[in-house]
């Protein structure tokens, strides 16, 4: 059986029909359909997108956090944090980008979609670890990339590039110790030296 790729406008119409009044924004750009829904409707929309005829997005390929605090050079005025999911329908050979904004900038949270697509498990843990986005209903939401004692969320735009602490192995104590950051922040201007006839150029 040959499966043909569905044109984006067909996917857009199918999604619009299924999701209905839960659509905050539905667009097509660069050959891909993007759906934005309110965080309060995320779980219901996820189940519809997975099960409804014409959609059948059986797979979640990727999920990541986004910090919009410096978007458009700081003139952006919308919610700070979003979660972006890339969905695939193997049955219909179509894709969808699903975007959800967290309603609270100080404590970003939204429902976990792990019960809908179990591939979301580690992706949600990563978004929690790096951006501090809490996924309600996740059964094991803990750090996945940073150390358990790590302070803050390193992919947030306001996180210092040097971090807050550094760790090293102390041979005398026989263990890893944390200490204040010893890196000096400095600006380095590279020095360029060229020979007069470098590369045979005059």
Explain what you see.
The chain has 202 residues and is α/β, with parallel strands linked by helices. It has a domain at 8-147: 2-Layer Sandwich (Beta Polymerase, domain 2), CATH 3.30.460.80. It has helices spanning 8-19, 42-51, 120-131; strands spanning 25-29, 32-36, 59-67, 81-89, 94-101, 109-111, 134-136, 165-170, 175-180. The strands form 3 sheets. Strands 1-2-5-4-3 form a 5-stranded mixed sheet. The protein has a two-stranded parallel ribbon with strand order 6-7. A two-stranded antiparallel sheet has the order 8-9. The longest helix is centred in the first third of the chain and has 12 residues, at 8-19. It is globular.
Task: Please count the beta strands (DSSP E, at least 2 residues each).
Answer: 9
Structural class: alpha/beta
Query: Beta-strand level of the residues, as a percent range?
Result: 25-35%
Please identify, by name, the CATH architecture of the domain at 8-147: 2-Layer Sandwich
Report, as a whole number of angstroms, the end-to-end distance: 65 Å
> Roughly how many Å is the radius of gyration?
23 Å
| SSE run | HEEHEEEEHEEE
Poorly predicted runs are none
What number is the mean pLDDT?
90
Number of helical regions: 3
Query: What is the CATH homology-level superfamily of the domain at 8-147?
Result: NADH:ubiquinone oxidoreductase Nqo5 subunit
Report the principal-axis shape: globular
CATH topology annotation of the domain at 8-147? Beta Polymerase, domain 2
